[in-house]
Structures are given as C-alpha cells and as structure tokens.
Inverse folding.
C-alpha cells in the first residue's frame, strides 16, 4: 500500500533527520519516511497500511502503547523514551513525540509520530553543544552584569531566534505587580496586540504563564489549540488573533526563581520557524530562568548595598558649601563606570578670622566600608581643623588616625588653608594629584612632590608649602579619577588637565565642568573636583605694628576706633575697642615678662627672640557678617582662662573677651602666636578697600 501524500511532500519528509510516521485514528500507518525505514528496518511499502502497534512495539508492551495512543487520540500530546524492537528483533531505546492533528471542526483526524534513537551519540552531542553554547553566552551575560534589566533584554535577543520566534519576560515590581520587561520577536514580525513594555499583563488561571508562576515549575505546551482556548478569556483578544495569524506552535513558560521566591517569568514560543519543543528544551529554559532569577536576587542585594552606601556617603558629604568672603567655591562629584560607591570626599571648612580650609581626598577601596572610613576621616579632619592646626600638622594627625583604623588602609588627601584677605594659601599633600594654581590667563601645578599617602607615612612629618593666589585666580583640587584612565597615566592626565585649563573659564562651576571633560574616555573611578575662584577686589583689612609697651594699648584703641568708623561700623566700636585693648594689654604684659626668655643652662641667649617679643601687630578684618581682630606676638606660650581670686589684680581679661565676643581663640604661628576674636555684624556688604601695594589697607 502507498501513502496518500504527494511526491513533493514525501521528499520533504524524507529529507528530515527524524523518523516520521503519520497514522489515522485507527493507528494505521499512512506515511512512513526514509528515516523511519532506517530506524526500524521496515520499508515504506511494508509499513504503510499496517497498525503502528505492530511495528516496533515489544510483545510485552502493547498495553502501555495502547494507553499512550488513547491519550494522544484524546487530544493530549505525549513525549518520552520508549523501548522498541527493530524488524531484525534488535532492541532500541527511542525518543518519540506523538502529536494529534485536528480537522476544521477541532476533532483529532490523525497522529504524527516523530522519533530518533535516544542512544545516537552524534545527534545528542550536536544538540547538547548548541544548547551549551547558548547557555554559556546567556550565563556570561547574567553573571558579569548587575544591570539585570538590560541584561535580560540581551538574553531575550539570544533566545530569539536561537531557540524561539517570540520571547517575553515579566517581572514583579516593588508592589508585587507583574510588569512586562521585554518583548522580543523574529525580524520582521509584528508585535501588535502584545502587552507593551512597562505595562501589567493579565493571564487566565490555566494559561501556561499563570501555571508556571503558581507552581514554581516550568510548563511545556506543544498543543497551541489549548493556548487559544485559554487566551479567549484574556482581556486582550488581539493576542489571540495574532497567535492564530502567525501559526503559534509551542510554548515554554519558566519561573524566574531564586532564594527569595519567584521574581517573574520567562516565556518562549515558536511559530514561523516550525520548531517543536521537547523536554530537553524545557530543561534548558528552566535552567536559564533559574540563573536569571539568581541574577535578579544578586542585583537586588547589590542595589540594597549600593543604596546604603550612597545614603551613607551623601549623609557624610556636605550638602551645601558655606559662603566665604572673597571666594566662590563649587564642586562636582560623579561615580565611576562600575557604579559602586567609592571613598572620595571633599569639604570646605570656615576657619577663624575669615580664612577657609579646603580639603579633597580618596579612601582606597569601594562600597560601604570605604564610605564609612571616609565619614570617619572627614569628621576627624573637621575636628582638627577647628583646632586651627597648620596643614602639615593636621595631615600628620590624620596619618596616625588612619594607621590606627586599619594597617592596610591607604588614603590620599590634600588640605589647604586659604586666607582671602592676604591671598596666601598654605598646602600639604598626602599622595594626591597636585592641585592647580589658576591665574587669570594661565594654569600651573603647585610645586613640590606629594608626600606619602595617609596610612603609609610611617611617622615621617608632612611638609607644607605657601603660595600667593593672584586676584581673579583660584585653586583646583581633584581626585585621581579625574585624570586617570585605563590607557592614561596620572601624570599624563594632569598635563591634559593643565592644558585644558590654560585659559580658565569664568566661574567655579565652569571650572569643575571643564576639569571633568579634560581626560578622554569613560572613567573607572569616582571623580571629585573642588574649584575655588578668588575675588578681584581686596577685602577690608588693616594692620598696625606696635611696640610692646603699656602705651600701645591706647594707640590700638584709637586705631580700632578710626578703622571701624571708616568701615561704617560705628555701633560696634565700643565693644571692639574693649576687646582689642584686652588682647593687646595681655600680649604686652607677657612680653615684658622675660623670665621665659632665660636660656637653658649652656644655651646662648636669643636676642632676635627678645626683639620679636618687644613688638606686636594688630590686624583688623571686615567680612560680610563678621569683624575679626587679631593680635600677633612672638610669645609661643598660649593664653588660657583661669579663675581669679577676690584679691587678684588680673586674670579676668579673657573672661571678658569670652563674654563680649561671638567667639575667640588662639593659634600658633611660625614666629609665636595669634590671639583673635570675632564679632557678628549686620549683613551689609563691606566697602572694599582700594588696591595697595603689599595687599594691606
């Protein structure tokens, strides 16, 4: 008996690598291709017209074969391995798939049986290699990226057309709502009717996606008519129309599961390619979905840690920079390409008498630990700055602190103290790229090599250098992420930065932007920039040198009265005169007490030291909201408040200063000390002094 199919169709069936047999509802063979002849040994003429139960079914298995046939005739496909016997009696383990075919009325009209030798190592090897290659590429994408949403989109592009014609991925959002993340189709296919990305799909309870989400297991559906029936209840009938139009054939839905439950679903489908899915495909999609679910969990953990680090970092860095007389300050901070929080830090610290401390640095390492160490250092640095320590001594204390925190910790840092009244800037550098000194039409690195990073100083004292910042000039401090790239050394990056700022732009914000654009390529490290622009006009300041004699107190009061009248601060003259008188009198009293000048036994008497103590200097400064008075002398002893007895003639001066001033203090200088006070004044803008040689007024 011959089969009823046309020769062209028989040629197509014979070209297939799998054995193909088609039976009617009585299980009588109507089609038998060449691969079936090769697998079982019966020729086409011998097989067509006979019951398939008589061809290859072992004598002991007819009951099981009849049960499977009844299942398929009922409209339920079957796939699995089955022991058969070839015509020559030899046993075989076959991998078979039985699919019912339906007529226009939906009734089963015939059965298609495809099979192969389950022990055919060559076939298995080829299929395994293809799946292994796909899993390797997808696994690499999922395992090397923490931007999972974008990575899942790339995985969908691998699956289509790798093993599917269509793919979508849905994820649960923070509220537990299922949201479409990815839609992928073969080239040229329309996705009209599909749930758009970003919107929430709805599935009937017996939909394969709903079943996968409910059970936590993958679902294989190779009878698309079942999908059509359930999809008819879906809120979007356009999907049903699309499925019928493209000839949807098979569906696999697998949950994206992880240690913390199901996070979504991956669904692949075939149509125009004619592919059929088997349980091996189901296993592969389930494995891929499991890896994607684990990657989602890892990404969620990373996001929580990053959010914690960012919150910690933002809480520890200054939100707004203080307003300082005579300077404009701006900053820029940008995280590196790997998106993990680093330890870059910066700060602007108002100091007594209108000066300002400027700091920038970088803690080695990344993540919450680096951010926490950065916070500790910034707090310690502010505490040391309040003590008005010179930059070199401050870095020495920080170096000791870093060594105590962690032997392996390394921190780079630049600390500078700028005086906008004198335009002098004192800088100490612990391993950071050199700050840049900006002139109105030039840019230069501050001279002198950087000292060892904090934590690696080994007790070696840090050095500080003093510079004069020109009117209209400025300073630029930055971390190594600004100038370093994978193919660019730090020194090369510094040269590029210096060239880019050869003609510095106007404001500090523009300086920061220009600095971040100087080095090419994507930065791998965090970038922090702090820019300072100095005013063109000089701030009001007055200097008066006096001999260390009792009569000088009267001269200091008269000078204070005249200067405050010139500055329009007559209402503050009385308190300012009293404070100046107390500081000058105290300085004179101790300068005349020469007992501390007596040299140690065997040492020579220092005449220059005596001369320095025989004179003092009064400095008055007027800021936007404050008036400062300073008294410099050559006595290295620091004054302190003490409790005066009822009969004591002295000991109450500093108590008076403490009561009348907004604040007061003392700091060591290279030639002795400076005692200062501050008075708060109204917010009127100060009258800027005329430019005079030497910077005084």
């Amino acid at each position: 008996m011959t089969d009823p199919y046309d020769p062209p169709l028989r040629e197509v069936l014979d070209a297939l690598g799998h054995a193909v047999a088609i039976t009617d509802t009585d299980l009588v063979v109507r089609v038998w291709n060449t691969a079936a002849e090769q697998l079982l040994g019966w020729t086409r003429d011998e097989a067509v017209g006979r019951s398939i139960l008589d061809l290859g079914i072992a004598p002991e298995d007819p009951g099981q074969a009849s049960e499977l046939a009844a299942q398929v005739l009922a409209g339920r496909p079957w796939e699995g391995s089955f022991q058969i016997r070839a015509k020559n009696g030899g046993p075989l383990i076959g991998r078979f798939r039985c699919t019912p075919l339906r007529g226009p009325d939906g009734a089963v009209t015939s059965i298609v049986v495809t099979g192969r030798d389950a022990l055919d190592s060559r076939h298995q090897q080829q299929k395994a290699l293809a799946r292994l290659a796909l899993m390797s590429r997808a696994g690499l994408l999922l395992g090397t990226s923490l931007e999972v949403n974008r990575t899942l989109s790339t995985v969908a592009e691998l699956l289509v057309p790798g093993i599917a014609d269509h793919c979508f991925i849905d994820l649960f959002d923070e509220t537990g709502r299922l949201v479409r993340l990815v839609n992928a189709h073969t080239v040229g296919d329309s996705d009209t009717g599909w749930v758009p990305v970003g919107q929430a799909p709805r599935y009937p309870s017996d939909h394969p996606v709903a079943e996968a989400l409910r059970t936590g297991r993958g679902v294989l559906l190779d009878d698309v008519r079942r999908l059509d029936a359930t999809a008819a209840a879906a809120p979007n009938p356009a999907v049903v129309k699309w499925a019928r139009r493209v000839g949807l054939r098979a569906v696999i839905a697998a949950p994206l599961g992880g240690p913390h439950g199901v996070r979504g679903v991956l669904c692949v489908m075939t149509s125009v390619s004619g592919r059929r899915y088997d349980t091996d495909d189901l296993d592969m999609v389930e494995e891929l979905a499991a890896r994607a679910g684990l990657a989602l969990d890892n990404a969620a953990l990373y996001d929580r840690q990053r959010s914690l680090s960012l919150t910690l970092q933002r809480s520890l860095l200054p939100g707004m920079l203080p307003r300082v007389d005579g300077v404009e300050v701006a900053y820029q901070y940008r995280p590196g390409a790997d998106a993990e929080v680093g330890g870059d830090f910066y700060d602007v610290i108002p100091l007594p008498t209108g000066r300002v401390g400027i700091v920038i640095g970088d803690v080695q390492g990344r993540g919450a630990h680096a951010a926490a160490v950065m916070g500790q250092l910034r707090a310690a640095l502010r505490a040391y700055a309040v003590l008005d320590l010179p930059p070199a001594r401050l870095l020495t204390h920080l170096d000791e602190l870093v060594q105590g925190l962690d032997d392996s910790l390394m921190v780079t840092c630049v600390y500078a103290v700028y005086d906008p009244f004198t335009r002098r800037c004192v800088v100490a550098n612990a391993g950071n790229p050199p700050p840049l000194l900006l002139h109105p039409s030039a840019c230069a690195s501050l001279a002198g090599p950087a000292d060892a990073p904090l934590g690696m100083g080994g007790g070696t004292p840090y050095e500080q250098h003093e510079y004069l910042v020109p009117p209209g000039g400025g300073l630029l401090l930055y971390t190594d992420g600004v100038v370093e790239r994978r193919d660019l050394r730090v020194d090369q990056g510094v040269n590029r930065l210096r060239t880019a700022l050869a003609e510095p732009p106007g404001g500090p914000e523009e300086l920061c932007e220009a600095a971040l654009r100087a080095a090419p390529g994507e930065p791998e490290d965090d970038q922090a920039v702090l820019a300072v622009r100095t005013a063109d006009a000089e701030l009001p300041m007055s200097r008066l040198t006096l001999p260390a004699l009792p009569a000088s107190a009267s001269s200091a009061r008269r000078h204070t009265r005249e200067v405050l009248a010139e500055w329009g601060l007559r209402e503050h003259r009385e308190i300012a005169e009293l404070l100046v008188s107390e500081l000058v009198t105290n300085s004179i009293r101790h300068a005349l007490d020469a007992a501390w000048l007596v040299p140690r036994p065997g040492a020579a008497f220092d005449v220059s030291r005596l001369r320095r103590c025989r004179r003092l200097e009064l400095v008055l400064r007027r800021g936007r909201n404050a008036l400062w008075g300073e008294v410099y002398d050559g006595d290295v002893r620091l004054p302190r408040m003490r409790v005066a007895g009822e009969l004591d003639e002295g000991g109450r001066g500093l108590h008076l200063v403490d009561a009348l001033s907004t604040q007061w203090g003392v700091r060591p200088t290279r030639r002795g000390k400076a005692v200062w006070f501050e008075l708060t004044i109204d917010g009127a803008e100060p009258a800027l002094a005329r430019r005079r040689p030497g910077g005084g007024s």
